[in-house]
Design brief:
5 helices
């Protein structure tokens, strides 16, 4: 016997369409994971310098400063947290889904949006894997991690351009899908 899915909560929209809440916003866990991931990715850049100084100095017998060691540990733990949040987002997307893209987008725009998201997920997982390999197996492969981080900056830039385009040109409130829910006045 198959289980019947729970009926979706329907909310009337101003264009006299019925769109379920799930089709127009992400879950609270997905929102928190997204913004936590964004913050951690930003923090990884200044801490990367600590990794470089601590490991390059170590190769020449120079002991890293306390600050560089702190930054290196912060970069390493930040990478593991990024892995956890990226997996949470990926599984959330697979099991909870993602809101529909705004109506009126052309095929190539939808394809680019899906390809960019897939590349970001793949890139985040590859970044953590390459960082772990460079840290624990062979520092000689750090160039792969560095190249992936530069490619990641390009992907995130494309992502941000898309968000700005939706907010300023299309004005379709795409960003609202990732904002915390607003409390309604009682």
């Amino acid at each position: 016997m198959l289980l019947k899915p729970k009926p979706r909560e329907h909310i009337s929209m101003d264009r006299s369409t019925e769109i379920s809440r799930r089709d127009r916003t992400y879950s609270s866990l997905q929102k928190a994971s997204h913004w936590g991931l964004a913050l951690l990715c930003v923090l990884e850049f200044p801490t990367a310098a600590g990794i470089q100084r601590a490991h390059l100095g170590h190769a020449f017998g120079i002991k890293a400063s306390g600050w560089d060691s702190f930054m290196a540990v912060g970069h390493e733990w930040g990478g593991w947290l990024i892995l956890i949040l990226a997996l949470l987002l990926l599984f959330g997307r697979l099991f909870q889904g993602a809101p529909r893209l705004p109506p009126g987008m052309r095929f190539w725009q939808r394809a680019l949006a899906h390809a960019a998201h897939a590349a970001i997920y793949f890139g985040l997982l590859a970044l953590v894997a390459s960082g772990a390999v460079a840290m624990y197996l062979s520092g000689r492969l750090a160039f792969v991690h560095i190249a992936l981080s530069k490619a990641g900056v390009g992907l995130i830039s494309l992502h941000l351009v898309g968000v700005l385009w939706h907010q300023t040109i299309r004005r379709d409130d795409l960003l609202e899908r990732l904002m915390p829910a607003r409390r309604q006045a009682s």
